[in-house]
């Protein structure tokens, strides 16, 4: 049962344009959401996060939007740069008692072309 | 900066061998995690630990065990490696959840690409 879904396995965007990566979740207990970026042969690196009390969080070129009623979040990258080419994972969490565990989506491979 | 290191970047083992993957973090984090990443499946949690000697099963614990004897070190053990355990293994750590926003952020090591022949 995939509780966090990234329905687009890949996305290609021209340099300078906006990249929009989408993520849907089914578990209404999730209350914290994160985006990670992963280059080949490296571990994921944390990019940006948002708590469920907000609907938008911005950090430089990266903005995450959360629509709780639709159980949907998106990551906007503006402007896209070739160095943004990577696999992006969204993740969701809630406190289980012992630790906050993250549930990851399957990832979207972003290719930024010149 | 948080630093999570893993003992090997690449490992090749034979079916039936016992395999140890080591992870060390230097940020005094309480929580440590082991994931495997496979194409089309994302990151799946194998085991995690929220304190020394404490462990909990994740979503896919079968065929694996873990050990946490010191706070900074978390080991993943494949008791008898099989070909379906060929994968990228990722270790992560995070601070204890209180819960303050942001404490859920996990920091990952570079990964170990394990091939079981």
Q: Can you count the helices of chain A?
A: 0
Unreliable runs of chain B? none
The average pLDDT score of chain A comes to 93
CA-CA gap between termini of chain A: 38 Å
Q: Of all protein chain pairs, which has the greatest interface, and how many residues does each chain bring to it? A: A-B, 28 and 35 residues
**Percent strand of chain B:** over 45%
Radius of gyration of CA atoms of chain A, rounded to a whole number: 14 Å
Quote the distance from N terminus to C terminus of chain B: 37 Å
Oligomer: heterodimer
Binned, the helix content of chain B reads: under 10%
Rg from Cα of chain B = 14 Å
Major sheet summary line of chain B? 7 strands, mixed
Strand percentage of chain A lies at over 45%
SS field, number of helical segments of chain B = 0
Could you characterize the architecture of this molecule?
- The complex is a heterodimer of chains A (114) and B (117).
- Chain A contains no helices and eleven strands.
- By secondary structure, chain A is mainly β.
- In chain A, strands 2, 4, 5, 9, 10 and 11 form a six-stranded mixed beta sheet that branches. Chain A has a five-stranded antiparallel beta sheet with strand order 1-3-8-7-6, with no helix packed on it.
- Chain B has 117 residues and is an all-beta fold.
- In chain B, strands 2, 4, 5, 6, 9, 10 and 11 form a seven-stranded mixed beta sheet that branches. In chain B, strands 1-3-8-7 form a four-stranded antiparallel beta sheet, with no helix packed on it.
- In chain B, a hairpin with a 3-residue loop joins strand 4 (31-38) and strand 5 (42-51).
- Chain B starts with a strand and ends with a strand.
- The model of chain B has no long low-confidence stretch (mean pLDDT 91).
């Amino acid at each position: 049962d995939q509780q966090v879904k990234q329905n687009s396995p890949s996305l290609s965007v021209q340099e300078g344009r906006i990249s929009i990566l989408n993520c849907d979740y089914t578990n209404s207990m999730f209350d914290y959401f994160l985006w990670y970026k992963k280059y080949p042969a490296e571990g994921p690196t944390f990019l940006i996060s948002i708590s469920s009390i907000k609907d938008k969080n911005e950090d430089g070129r990266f903005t995450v939007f959360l629509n709780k009623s639709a159980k949907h979040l998106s990551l906007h990258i503006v402007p896209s740069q070739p160095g943004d080419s990577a696999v992006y994972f969204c993740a969701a969490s809630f406190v289980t008692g012992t630790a906050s565990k993250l549930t990851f989506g399957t990832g979207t491979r972003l290719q930024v072309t010149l | 900066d948080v630093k999570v290191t893993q003992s090997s970047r690449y490992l090749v083992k034979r079916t039936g061998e016992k395999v140890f993957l080591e992870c060390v973090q230097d940020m005094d984090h309480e929580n440590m995690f082991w994931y495997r990443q496979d194409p089309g499946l994302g990151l799946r949690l194998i085991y995690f630990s929220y304190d020394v000697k404490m462990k909990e099963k994740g979503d896919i614990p079968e065929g694996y065990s873990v050990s946490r004897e010191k706070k900074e070190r978390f080991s993943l053990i494949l008791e008898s490696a099989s070909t379906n355990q060929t994968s990228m293994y990722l270790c992560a750590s995070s601070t204890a959840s209180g819960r303050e926003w942001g404490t859920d952020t996990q920091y990952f090591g570079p990964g170990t690409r394990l091939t079981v022949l």
